[in-house]
Known about the structure:
Structural class: alpha/beta
Strand order of the largest sheet: 3-2-1-4-5
Largest sheet: 5 strands, parallel
Number of strands: 5
Helix content: 40-55%
Mean pLDDT: 94
Shape: globular
Order of helices and strands: EHEHEHEHEHHHHHHHHHHHHHH
Distance between the termini: 58 Å
Amino acid sequence: MGAVVWYRNDLRVDDxxxxxxxxxxQDTIRAxxxxxHKEQLFERGAQQAKFEExxxxxxxxxxxxxxxxxxxxxxxxxEALDSYLQTxxxxxFHKMTGTEEAASEQYVKDRYxxxxxxxxxxxxxxxxGSDELKRVFTAFRKRVEAKxxxxxxxxxxxxxxxIREESVKADPEIAFPFRGGESAGRARLQEYLAEPVFTYKExxxxxxxxxxxxxSAWLVNGSLSPRRVMAELQEAERKKGANESTYWLYFxxxxxxxxxxxxxxxxxxLFRSNGLKEEQYTWKTDQLAVxxxxxxxxxxxxxxxxxxxxxxxxWMSNRGRQIVASYLIHELKQDWxxxxxxxxxxxxxxxxxxxYGNWAFIAGVGNATRTPRxxxxxxxxxxxxxxxxxxxxT
Length: 394
């Protein structure tokens, strides 16, 4: 009989309740991660795959300090787990957002002894109340801010010292010059909270390294926990003072929570063509139009610049994501889910709840009382008036 820590989008040792509990309750511990093979509409981006490999290597180094090997499997998830797990194993894991994730959790629960935990979001469903979320962000924000509930992050198990890593030097050519892994994520968190966060609200629509935190990349695969980010943010505010910009970073964490909790409440509805709406929507699918959009050949320079950036680096600013999504949906009249699927395979920081939630929002089938549209010409004149970004990527 032994313990198995089943890793998914929680690739860290810090603030890892499942790992901590396994270490406290069991003598023999193994760790497993499955690279799940499933059919996708688009080929996976090289930068996304590279970030995953770097993250797994860093996690394996941390776990090895207390004698735990990280076994990395490939194949169909349930089949891979069945070939690895023994009938008397106790499986420790964190609950994840998503219909496929929930189905795999139920599969494991039905066959093995499990211990499950919740650390993927900053706030929890039970903190909000069954009638409070209502799938409207403002109502959600007011509720959680009034309650003010935060959970303290857990330190790593005794015996693990986080590998120190300096944040990589800025590459002037790209906005995301970072490595994957918990050590790199913690280094970026410290670097960003030391100074750039205090001007975040003014710079967040920019396209450079420090214009935004970039923390989403580590939050997505769980090499940073939202509880750790919040604890470090509050410490920075105590030392240097809070302002609108530091609040805005928390505001972004709230949006992340909102999308996660909405998906947990609505199940698979965000994957439908009409999203969360009851009325039916008909979307076109023109493969040639999608390919021109995907390859940065729309003849709209600002749109093309963003699409070239994501293809080469696996990154795109939030402003850019809104602009290219609006263009695909409202100008090219294409099915919004095709764009969401492309982002799923390209973005280093792809998060199923935030990605589909944001695409549905732009399409007018998500958490929106209006359908937002972004004119790329106006957006370029406002946010890239000298065309520095546009010329760099076109």
